[in-house]
Amino acid sequence: MGLNENVAKPLDRLAGMLAPDMEAVNALIRTRMASRHAPRIPEVTAHLIEAGGKRVRPLLTVAAARMLGYGGTHHQLLAATVEFIHTATLLHDDVVDESRQRRGRPTANLLWDNKSSVLVGDYLFARSFQLMTETGHMQVLRILADAAATIAEGEVLQLTAAQDLATTEAVYLQIVRGKTAALFSAACEVGAEIAGGTAVQVRALHDYGDAIGIAFQIVDDILDYCGVSETIGKNVGDDFRERKLTLPVITAIAAADGAERAFWQRTIEQGDQRDGDLDRALSILARHDALGSARRSALGWADRARAALGPLPQGPIRDCLSELAGFVVARVA
Questions:
Q1: 102: which strand partners?
Q2: Which of 50, 86, 270, 315 has the highest local Cβ count within 10 Å?
Q3: Which SUPFAM superfamilies did the record assign (predicted)?
């Protein structure tokens, strides 16, 4: 998911506040992605991890812990864990989706091969569990293990729902909660948990991560149809070409007339895509204000994210988290 300059502003401020922590996290990532016996592992991992990502998820872990007054270092282990889980899922996703571009660069499966991407992803999952056990905190293990299972469920659900025009917005949200929001919410929740937050605070940060993760994914799905390739880090229309039923398409299908439904059946269900089909898809989306509807949904989830911060201590970190919710959806304002 690409982040433009507007979204980066609160992230940059947050990263500046938490710079010593993030330097330690980055050092952990570089050290723990190494392998004495398989040099391809750090090669493939570095290709993604050093590709200019904003480290949003580990930053949320660090922010949650520090906001609640944590003074130890276990949050750094958890932040590195979260980044490894995220990177592993990206490696696997690009194989499943047969993607050729990620963050504006060729994907690992294109530069190396599918086997390397899958196996290095497996290695990073294993590394993530090694890291989280070093905290000795059973609840943290439960949260991250549950998130890993939810992510896998979301990917399988997306696979089974793919190209099925009967897929509803409710199913879409279930997929998004798995593939994106689960790790956002877990990243926030483990930061609160390791800091000894109250049950109310832990839940608040879980809810914040869930809502901002959903908003993030909806915006990403909107930008696939109206973004700029250099900004979103992938080709505009990739979701259409990959026959993904994202929220804008689901909205348009629900309002489709007979001719439009036949179009979606041919292009999405049957995979018979021809020159000019992307332009026609854009025209249908515009006719039913499907992108506008998705944008309003994203704005609603951003509002939920900001509201979730209510029980948390006031201060510059909370302010940045609140601003981040707004800037995520500002990408499609």
A1: 105
A2: 86
A3: Terpenoid synthases (SSF48576)
Residue 243 near residue 267, CB atoms below 8 Å:
yes
What is the CATH classification number for the domain harbouring 110? 1.10.600.10
Question: How many Å apart are CA 187 and CA 206, to the nearest integer?
Answer: 8
Question: How many independent structural domains does the chain possess?
Answer: 1
Q: Which residues contact 261 (CB under 8 A, 6 or more apart)?
A: 165, 253
pLDDT at 1: 41
- The CA R_g of the chain, rounded to the nearest whole Å, is 20
Closest C-alpha among 25, 27, 30, 96 to residue 55: 25
- CB contact at 8 A, 207 and 188: no
Pair 325, 306: CB distance under 8 Å: yes
Domain assignment present for 71 = yes
96 domain-assigned: yes
Contacts of 251 (CB under 8 A, 6+ apart): 169, 288, 290, 293, 294
How big is the chain, counted in residues? 333
Range of the structural domain that residue 106 is part of? 5-316
In a domain, residue 331? The reply is no
Report yes or no on 42 lying in a domain: yes
Residue in 140, 137, 159, 138 with CA at minimum distance from that of residue 92: 159
* Number of neighbouring beta carbons within 10 Å of residue 311: 14
This prediction's pTM: 0.90
pLDDT in tens, 82-132: 999 998 888 877 777 667 666 667 776 776 778 888 888 898 899 999 999
